Amino acid sequence: MGLVSASTQIRIISALHLAIAYHLIFQPKLLDQQGVVVLLGQAMGIDEVVSFSSAAVRPVSSFLGLLFGFIGCSDLIAASIDGIPFYIHWGGQGMFYLPKSIPYSSGITL
User: Fold this and answer.
1) 25, 49, 74, 87 — which has fewest CB within 10 A?
2) pTM of structure
3) The domain containing residue 95 runs over which residues?
């Protein structure tokens, strides 16, 4: 038996999506200054001049924030279902979520 149930894991991921959505919409500069983002940007050779908070990129970050917010809300609503419909819904979603997680869990870089 696992330490954390599947519904708890889904709720945690939904909360993470909602937090990312909030920061992409209201405080994109905060994400731009994170160490991991700077490190990945330097590894890919992206200039530091480009930022999420510039006027040209603002609509893109807002759209991504809305997308993350929609995904977080829909998963949170679906995770609140009890009983058999929960397993029917997430059983059907597994084939869409699994291909996204295989490269990360097996160490394959795309």
Assistant:
1) 49
2) 0.66
3) 82-110
